[in-house]
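User: Thanks for the earlier help. One more: DUF1822 domain-containing protein. Can you show the sequence and predicted structure together?

Assistant: Of course, both are below.
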Amino acid sequence: MTILFDNPNQIELEISPDLVEQLWRHSGTSWNIFLNQVCLQTFLPTLEEDVTIDEVSVPSFWTHVNGAAFTWRNKRIILIPEISIDTTECTIPQEWVDIPKLAGDYYLAVQINPDELSLRVWGYTTHKDIKLSATYNFDRTYSLDAQYFIPDLNVLWVVSQLNANEPTRVTVPALSSGSATQAENLLLRLGNSNIIQPRLEIPFSLWAGLITDDNWRQRLYQLRQGISTKTNLGLWLQNTFADAWQSLDTILSPNLGASFGLRTTENDTSIKRVKCLNLPDGEAFLVLGLETEPDGRMGIRIQLRSGSQDEYLASGTCLKLVSASGDVIQSVQSRNLDNIIQLKRFKSPVGVEFSVQVEVGEFVVMENFVL
């Protein structure tokens, strides 16, 4: 790393060509991911103290929102990298300003020159200045004029030591996160890669709930990348299970499994696990039983059930077995007062992929499996 001194009041750094090559190779050709990784990994070594990189400084966040965050001297710092040669203003995504969990104390405007492999921090400002003086734009960003940025970062270093209690933030109202059912519907909608900017497709409060939840954010990233998360049933034979797939006794009431014939008997060698699904009318439970057949194939039994004998699946709830090519192999639909619906038991060779789809009206949940 080389520090350049064209402007004595500003930090200007040389970007390592090796770092550029490495990050571009692993960024999935996403320019925004690449830009933020270069910014973060080039700037942080200039700090002589330990920093804590924020949990949202990851590709699943950078795919949608520009900016990287870390904590330094108990202050939250937001880096906003841009490649524009215009430094008359800085554009800050709304996520970094109006989501309490993400809002920072100080915001550093960073100009990156990809041709000269250089990075320049041309000024810093505070959350307070952004809220009081910035212009809010239709694309959910704030634009703050350069006059509100202090170009000399030495001022920031001094203030952080001598005036650590300097007021830097304006209180922003808490945002209510949506329900799990609502999140599933939003993921299904926004997972369509034809939607160019999913952050602008839904109300900001709903988007804030998705983007700040690690699980939902990662699922959205995978959906838009065409990455399907598959449950490897072969691992079940080795007593290895994902956290979402629990034993029957953990989730179902003591009498429920027995009443539906699910409890393991002395001669029963099948493996049974259950996963809780959040459906529009409440929770339901997907149960999958697995056992090895004499011919080496796997026998599979799939059920969808309510949480208790006094609860019922919504009428018209559909349970489908779907092939890897998207064909519906079999399906079953609930009637009024059904506690349980079940697919016909089937056998399949090891290595085969399939999906189980649950539909309630327009709401769809899909679980992917590989044997």
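User: Great, one quick takeaway?

Assistant: Confidence is low (pLDDT under 50) at residues 1-6.
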